[in-house]
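May I ask for an example protein's residues together with how it folds?

___
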Amino acid sequence: MEESILVTSSSMVCCTYAMFGGFTVKQNKRLLSLLVILMTGGLLFAQTTTSGTLKLTGAYGSDLEAKLDAAYQVRIPVLAGEGPLFSGNNVKVKANLGLSPIAGTVTLDAVLTPIAVAEISLGGGVGTGWDFDLMDLNGLRLGAAVGAPLASDSLNGLYYMGRAGAAFQFDTGAIFSGDWMSVVIRTYHELNYKGYSNASADQAWEYENGGAMVNGFNYKGEYILGYQMPLMVNLVGLQLETYTYNTLDDATDMVGDLSVIANTQFTEDLSLLTAVQFTNYSKDDNRVITKGDAAFKRIVLILTYAL
């Protein structure tokens, strides 16, 4: 009898050990998985960088324009590999607050760099406008249709937009060594939707002196050819921006701006971009955009301070 009890007790101990031993192994696996996740996350956030900028833009052409932008950016390494094409792969998330005398706009954009020579972006924003009586300016205007007179619609609705874009970029300095061997090429293409909440489908509206528009899709193209130098004026080049409005419904003629640009780097954190712009379109009294002969448009100064 005692022998039977002893055998039974031994079996219970073995069974109990097996149960709790298996539980311990499972616990260890879970703890190990959690540790790997925490270490990976810690490494990721250790490599994540943040930055901020303050940008003051002033322009003078037919009108005097001014705008202040405050931006904050988070850069997260993603799909990073080895070699110059993949080692810098990342996602940048950027929030921007823009404020002018007649409008305020908030935007949020995410930019994926899957390879050094390409970017894919997705973003959007909202804003509203008001009157600036001192200079007889309106941040929001609304009309019956394109070509009809536009009247102030101060703070009566929201401007909104969404955009998706892709860019190709290349720097010869990545191939050829030397401070004077950097030629920068960049092309960017964007499809966006812009609208005004207080406008019907066929009503014309204008936001921040941008010209009369209707709710719908638009195309924007950007082409930059620049030369970088180890001088205070560290970049000179040309920038061409093209626009087609109502892309998916009775598209307008493509119009564009050509800019001669130069960047002056005063300090590591402070720079000034100067652009002399020429254009092949104009705006009539009702702010309708029409294609025309190439002519001087404006001079733009952008002062940027990196935080």
About this structure: Residues 1-20 have pLDDT under 50 and may be disordered. The longest helix spans residues 2-47.
